[in-house]
Specification:
Helix content is 56%, strand content 20%. The chain has 16 helices and 14 strands. It starts with a helix and ends with a helix.
Length: 405
């Protein structure tokens, strides 16, 4: 067996030019497909992280029906039982309460519909990093009577720090809601839509304003990473009562997931075209093995059986594929490692479009193991399939015809 391996290895280097052309085709195929996949998966991961860390969290608890009808009457009582259940699940890193509703916001002669979000300032900041988005003023403290506005809303209402905003709306079960609050801070929210309508305030003040003591519209829950979401969700479902529901970030962001799947399909088509180009390049060099017909005829004439010769040719194809795949994978690691910490910025209309969607205008990269082994394995399989061509030729080979060629 060792002899066959030696023969196959020596054979591929007898014609260095053919070997280098074939391995170069495989090398660049692995490099390009890995680069493309890493860029796709890195950007998808960044989009998901942005959504999770800027609003939805990994999981949320709501009253049943709230997600499809986001009104304050679809809120629920946050009691000690729910709190103890949350504290009992060790995989939960942090959770925070929210009371979200809609109201009219007025400043002098300007009025606009806004989304009011009552938050626990300390916990909310650990999840969504609101203080890191501050442009003017300061962040809220627990029990603070002020509010924080999105910069787009502040411009529309012509408000600055320490100005007063009037909120008028409908509270829980039809109660009246009206109050005046000083502007403590102005943030630049990554989502342009939220930046134009969002008002943050302390949750206790929000509950008082809308006559909803101890009521919440959602509990936002964070875990260590996405791998723990399903486990924690299953535990929460068993612990919560029939009036509430548990939703993960995928259920809350179906539109984003559909966009990702659509883009991923487009990427598969693009990579498919790339694979076909690579495959024809490899096929062209493998077809050059036809020039070895006389060599095969001589080997068979001196007594080598066909199946042994076929085995050696298969080993040659495997060696060619392995050299190209390993070289392409090794070369892609430092390249992607660089781009992992230096994303490619998007400018012009592409950058503006991504920014309008609420994401950072850049192409991010991923170094998850699947980015490397999936592409390498796909191209290696292509190489093996193409390697069937010389094998079929050997099976049909006639010794006398081969010696005369």
């Amino acid at each position: 067996m060792q002899t066959y391996f030696k023969l196959a290895w020596r054979n591929i280097w007898r014609n260095k030019r053919r070997t280098l052309i074939t391995t170069a085709s495989i090398f660049f195929g692995v490099l390009l497909s890995t680069f493309m996949t890493s860029m796709q998966e890195g950007s998808y991961s960044q989009y998901i992280t942005s959504i999770v860390n800027s609003y939805s969290g990994y999981l949320q608890i709501h009253k049943k029906g709230y997600w499809n009808d986001k009104i304050i009457n679809n809120s629920f009582l946050f009691d000690k039982n729910i709190e103890s259940n949350l504290k009992s699940i060790k995989k939960i890193t942090i959770y925070t309460q929210r009371l979200e509703t809609y109201s009219l916001a007025s400043s002098e002669d300007v009025t606009k519909g806004v989304m009011v979000m009552g938050i626990d300032p300390e916990k909310e900041d650990k999840i969504t990093n609101i203080s890191g988005k501050l442009k003017h003023g300061r962040f809220l403290k627990n029990g603070d009577n002020g509010i924080i506005l999105g910069s787009g809303l502040a411009r529309f209402l012509k408000l600055k720090i320490n100005d007063t905003l009037v909120l008028i709306g409908q509270g829980y079960h039809g109660a009246g809601a009206a109050g005046k609050y000083p502007v403590k801070g102005i943030i630049k929210h990554p989502s342009p839509e939220l930046d134009r309508i969002l008002v943050y305030m302390d949750i206790k003040n929000c509950q008082d304003l809308f006559s909803a003591p101890d009521m919440l519209t959602s509990v936002v829950i964070m875990v260590h990473d996405n791998d723990e979401v399903t486990l924690v969700k299953n535990e929460l479902v068993q612990l919560t009562d029939y009036n509430t529901e548990v939703m993960d970030w995928q259920e809350m962001n179906r539109l984003l997931l559909k966009q990702i799947e659509s883009d991923r399909i487009g990427g598969v088509i693009t990579k498919g075209v790339l694979y076909m180009i690579i495959a024809f390049g490899i096929l062209g060099t493998v077809m050059m093995m036809a020039e070895r017909k006389k060599e095969f005829g001589v080997i068979m004439a001196v007594g080598m059986q066909k199946y042994k010769l076929i085995f050696i040719v298969i080993l040659e194809t495997i060696f060619l594929g392995m050299i190209g795949v390993i070289a392409g994978t090794v070369a892609s690691i430092p390249l992607l490692y660089y781009f992992l910490f230096n994303p490619i910025p998007l400018t012009g209309q592409a950058g503006e479009m991504v920014l309008q969607m609420g994401f950072e205008p850049a192409m991010f990269f991923s170094m998850t193991p699947s980015v490397f082994y999936e592409q390498a394995l796909t191209i290696f399989i292509f190489t093996l399939i193409i390697g069937i061509y010389p094998v079929l030729n050997i099976r049909k080979l006639k010794v006398m015809n081969a010696l005369r060629s």
